[in-house]
Design goal:
By secondary structure, the chain is α/β, with parallel strands linked by helices. It has 5 helices and 6 strands; from the N terminus they run βββαβααβαβα.
């Protein structure tokens, strides 16, 4: 089964810290609210390369939902991607991030596909939630420092995991 590469926007592609010179500043408006995002166009190329090299499918796992296809994807040179729906919000007593049940349901509905999830808010509680969820296969959570955003090291870690786990089919 084709692995999934789940990608968050804020803190991953749009770092919270001071962006380096290779990031570009964009102003966008969603439902009348203005947002400033800093994006590195090389992220799109690197994510596409990772997807092709590992035979994986890119998917948005962000509260931007479809807005990521409108505002983020074109600025990174990405095509429109499938989207994990993130609502309605339901609090949990287990400590996992609010997105985690939606990611679990999305992946389970696709038939136990392995996945890598790049997010700045994934922690041990999220891993425990996913490991205990029926209908999920193997996965790798890649915690991204929200001040720096996605790095080559994060991508290399995903590539290595997919290859060593035998999920990578290559181009």
């Amino acid at each position: 089964m084709k692995p999934l590469l789940l990608v968050d926007v804020d803190g991953v592609l749009n770092p919270m810290g001071r962006p380096t010179p290779d990031f570009r500043r964009y102003e966008c408006s969603i439902d009348g609210t203005a947002y400033t995002v800093h994006l590195n166009p090389r992220h799109g190329t690197r994510l596409l390369e990772l997807a092709v090299e590992t035979g994986s499918e890119l998917v948005w796992a962000t509260t931007w939902e479809e807005h990521a296809n409108e505002w983020i994807a074109p600025r990174l040179g990405l095509p429109a991607l499938p989207v994990v729906r993130m609502g309605p919000f339901e609090p949990s007593g287990r400590g996992e991030m609010f997105k985690t049940p939606y990611v679990a349901a999305y992946v389970a509905a696709l038939g136990r596909r392995p996945f890598v999830w790049f997010d700045d808010q994934v922690w041990l509680e999220d891993e425990e939630y996913l490991r205990g969820h029926q209908g999920l296969d193997d996965f790798l959570l890649v915690h991204v420092d929200p001040r720096r955003g996605l790095t080559s090291e994060h991508l290399a870690r995903a590539r290595e995991w997919l290859t060593l786990s035998g999920f990578s089919r290559g181009p």
